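DM from R.C. (forwarded with permission)

"hey, sorry to bug you on a friday — could you get me a structure for this? deadline for the figure draft is monday and I only need the backbone to look sensible"
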Amino acid sequence: MGITSAEIHAKLKEFFGFDTFKGEQEKVIEHLCNGGDAFVLMPTGAGKSLCYQLPALLMEGCAIVISPLIALMKNQVDAIRGFVSDNEGIAHFLNSSLSRQQIEDVKKDVLSGVTKLLYVAPETLTKWENISFLQDVKLSFYAIDEAHCISEWGHDFRPEYRKIRALVDQIGRAPIIALTATATPKVQSDIQKNLGMMDAKVFKTSFNRPNLYYEIREKNDPKRDIIKFVRQHPRQSGIIYCLSRKKVEEMAQLLCVNGVKALPYHAGLDAKVRAANQDAFLMEDVDVIVATIAFGMGIDKADVRFVIHYDIPKSLEGYYQETGRAGRDGEQSSCICFYSYKDIRKLEKFMQGKPVAEQEIGKQLLQETAAYAESSMCRRKLLLSYFGEQYDVENCGNCDNCMHPKVHYEGKEDMLLLLELVDTLPERFKTDHLAAILAGVRTSMVNSYRHFSLPLFGAGSDHNEKFWVGIVRQAVLLGFLDKEIESYGLISLNDKGRSFLKNPHELMLSIEQDFNASDDDDDDDSASAARQMGGGGDLILLSMLRDLRKDMAHKLNLQPWVIFSDASLEDMSIMYPVTLDELRKCQGVGEGKASKFGAEFVRIIGKYVLENEIDRPDDFVLKSVKSKQPYKITIIQNVDKGVPIDDIARLLDMDMDQFLTALESIVYSGTKLNLDYYIDEELDPDVVDELLDYFENEAETDSLEEARRKLGEDTYSDLELRLIRLRYICEKGL
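My reply, with the result:
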């Protein structure tokens, strides 16, 4: 006779202190206790761990819990021991952190039947001595936590996880429960196939977390935005995710300098330091933890009020899981992500050198993330759709796109144009290729397939590729087109799309945000973007500053943007700097420009603040951490010696894009560099003259995007544009 419902409820109250279950928990537990395999898909905070912890305490034998993070096993074991009186042996972990004597003690408890849960890493399970040991143990079931690690399409794929089924067969068959908070239908199928549990009962809880507010912010000045946000939420717990260890350290230090209690967490820290920092966060000795994605799995802190992504995650699964660590208590919490398409390109570069299939999968996942970030549609609808869940509410009321709707227009004709193209193509293609055909852009793919000869090539040339990419995304969300993830994102027309082609009707589409406008850190487009994102300043002061800049430009015979960019003026109208020190903290100002042009600007701002009795936002002034910039001296010294810049970049292990960015940082901070030796040797004299003439007489801003539009997209290389811009600024602006 199996375990009864009354027994399950009694043990729930005895061990965990709850009177009722959440969602599907009770059904999962009953199914597992009766010997069935289960696939459990529950969002973070829905109580996945209880689905295997309670059955393990109820059933005869020991449950093997396979978990990916050694660092968190102790916390999970301590939690179980805390629930079950003072029986220390009730739960153990077995991994490489234990001494030989500790391992023997664990095995003794397991063999004696005292231990009900044994946590192991998949790497530990592969060792023959552990396989042999477990063959002598009566097992209740196997629980595979974070099961998405099995799938190559999951956001945290681990090859060791794909060996689990073979290990189970070696040790001895018992029921299997696989659990994850994030799995698309493709990932779910992959997990079940790999574990040999296609007949397992599937338990799904809605992915919708109505208490979470989702927002994407353009990555103009994320450090200042983050400091401002954290200060506006004092004494609240939050997690800030960064992709690199270096950025984690920098961000944690910056927060501390600005009066926020924060600590870093990443795999490069000593294990004891990591554990201490994690405990400090859990015990609320610090408010904010800055971390790589290594932090958070299994963390049971219910009152995390915000999760901020400094960098865009590599996949929507990763994003969803990390944002899911906010608001596990059901209270309103914020999920803010800073996004620039530049970051997507960087992440794609990191994939180089990996197997082609792995690169294709990674790029597809990245493009899905970019689509989410750039879309004007409801964030919640997009996320749920990605995980195969229909969300029929028109306005969720708790994301940036729903609370601040973007522009919509009647898009029936555009949709018909796209669907007709997909229908007439004999083969299937990806989103970017379809967009290029409609926009009339002759990419290498368009040329190789001779698609420039298609009747529909350029049929939508009144819009750019970016626009058509947005239309394709909306067509997929509306169910007119299918995107085959398994075949790397190929697009096909489905029955609903064919029906729309035959019987078109009025269709409102959104104009999606363009996060590609600013490819360079100093582009002036960032100012208008900042205003669109709700960061505009004092318009009266801004107008006064522009007039001052214009007058100064006439007197000095300079282009206005050479004095201060629009982004710099926008910053001044927000921060009201009244001293040169404060002015230097404004975006794109630096030491040189502040000293040369700043006095009159701070005088006017000071007078304006006094006359209008303005309460300056002192809390917005970002205190900076002194940057060591070891590369700066090396670059200046080598440029002075006339060393070719390619060689300097190689010396510093930088690609050319990174090196040019470093050069721009040095020049914009007030140091004049003479690059004539390289420019005169490597660049065509006519190109140099033409570009100098452009920056001298035509350029209204220093935006490279604007330069490309005016001079022709493919007329000049990035290297030519950026070097001549630097030369012009050094000659005229400093």
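R.C.: lifesaver. The CA atoms of residues 209 and 288 lie 22 Å apart.
me: no worries. The first strand starts at residue 38 and ends at 41.
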